[in-house]
Amino acid sequence: MRIAMIGAAMIAAGVAVPARAQDPNHARNIAATCTACHGTEGRSVGGIPPSLAGQSKDYLLQALKDFKEGKRAGTTIMHQHAKGYTDQQLELIAGYFSSMKAGPGAAAPAAR
Amino acid sequence: MTLNRREFLKWVAASGGAAAVAGCAGTDAGPGAAKVVVIGGGYGGATAARFVKLWAPDIDVTVVERNTEFVSCPISNLVLAGNTELGGLTMSYEGLRKRGIRMVRDDAVSVDPAARQVRLAGGSTLAYDRLIVSPGIDFIYDQIPGLQSTDAQNRVLHAWKAGAQTAALRKQLEAMRDGGVFVFHFPTAPYRCPPGPYERVCQVADYFKRVKPKSKIIVLDSNPDITSKAGLFRAAWKGMYPGLIDYRPNSELADVDVKGMTVRLTFDSVKGDVLNVVPPHRAGDIAQKTGLITANQRWCGVDWLTMESVAVKGVHVLADATLSAPAMPKSASMANQHAKVCAAAVIALIKGQPVNQQPMMMNTCYSFVDGKNVMHVASVHTYDAAQKTMVAVKGAGGVSDKASELEGTYAWGWARNIWAEALG
């Protein structure tokens, strides 16, 4: 708690944050890299690419690891993306999306 | 409480009251709420606004945008071939309004970083605690004497910002006789959308092949070679459009003769029926006026942990306007990723929480080689604390084996989702 308080004070005062200060939203922030394609919070507009929200963590993590290790056939791009993340990051991503509520993505409104 | 947000934070800093910060976070933005102002409602700005509001509903978010509608640059090359309609790429800002974001249709004319205020062309001012500037690009016409006048610029189009120019270039191509020559020039990297010019060549070629088969395309590339997906584009041009595309690298622009419909290069002149010249770019005007440009009089240097300007405190810069990190493209995907790193950091800074020290960014650029077949380039970027910049993760990323209809489906899925991230 004392470290958190000092950290907060330092940030507010514009002082560089020590590396040990933990981002409380780390999983959310890493998973946000996926959502340009898979939809905000993992709810995909139109379902392509597939929604990730509410899927089981085990399923998501296995799929990501299989992509990373080149074990999944028929992939176009996911094997290239998955290789960019550590196993720990993949676990955070899988955990985040499994904790999100499933549902349809909200599309951008047409102008006319 | 009459303290404004900044005074409040100073007080918090002085008293070391982290608990007080947590205690003040309500569920909705009230009169004393922290203020985030975003200049520019494109892929960077709209996405940043949406995610600040999504992740911190108690923060008051305002977007200043001069246009009434959002028009997507990605996919807009297809309009040139008649492979899609501009209307389908045009979206309203109603989604952001519904989420409680204030949309101000105006032009930001100046920023006072000391007073933390943005002045608008309409005369009013907006106060901010944190300002996010995502102005996109403006064109540098200084070195092109023949394109100084508005009239000349309206005749020789760039069509490198989607909208009226895209529709106008489509009309010029439709009006061109069969057997005509389309001459296309674009600048050296870095420019907006690395594969974009080569995709445009494919789209115009697709149109000519179907409708005006006697016509030709002369590609005057300032770069020494195709800058993105080179092997894939070469294969597409050779296999799908044989004899139609005359590609000329190292084509350094000297001038444009609008009356004579000629592009003048350093050592050559090329006449055409339709000329399309994309001038070099720099960060948009408001970045220049605010003193955010730090590199080559063109781009804005940022701290990649927060996207905060290295020149002006309290001001964050996103997307095409930034001095790109190594191997980082100026793309809509990257703008989306900048926006989310920035949104998270802005919220953390306002609330006195730790900033993410290990941001990640991911890029996906799809290119259409005709109306349906698509190929991609992908990369993943991570923060390198020693170099203080984003670096591409080795072994990750890559390109398609070949263009395919399956990737065409994914490209449209990407578009629908990235639009929703910005505007949904």
List keywords for this structure.
heterodimer; A: 112 residues; mainly alpha; Cytochrome Bc1 Complex, Chain D, domain 2; 6 helices; globular; B: 424 residues; alpha/beta; FAD/NAD(P)-binding domain; 2 domains; five-stranded parallel sheet; four-stranded parallel sheet; disordered N terminus
Low-confidence stretches of chain A: 1-20
Helix-strand makeup class of chain B: alpha/beta
User: In the CATH hierarchy, what is the architecture of the domain at 24-99 in chain A at level 2?
Assistant: Orthogonal Bundle
Order of helices and strands of chain A: HHHHHH
Which CATH class of the largest domain in chain B applies here?
Answer: Alpha Beta
CATH homology superfamily of the largest domain in chain B:
FAD/NAD(P)-binding domain
Helix content of chain B: 25-40%
* Approximate strand percentage of chain B: 25-35%
User: CATH superfamily name of the domain at 24-99 in chain A?
Assistant: Cytochrome c-like domain
> Could you give a short account of the major beta sheet of chain A?
none
User: How large is the share of residues in beta strands of chain A?
Assistant: under 5%
Strand order of the largest sheet of chain B: 5-2-1-9-21
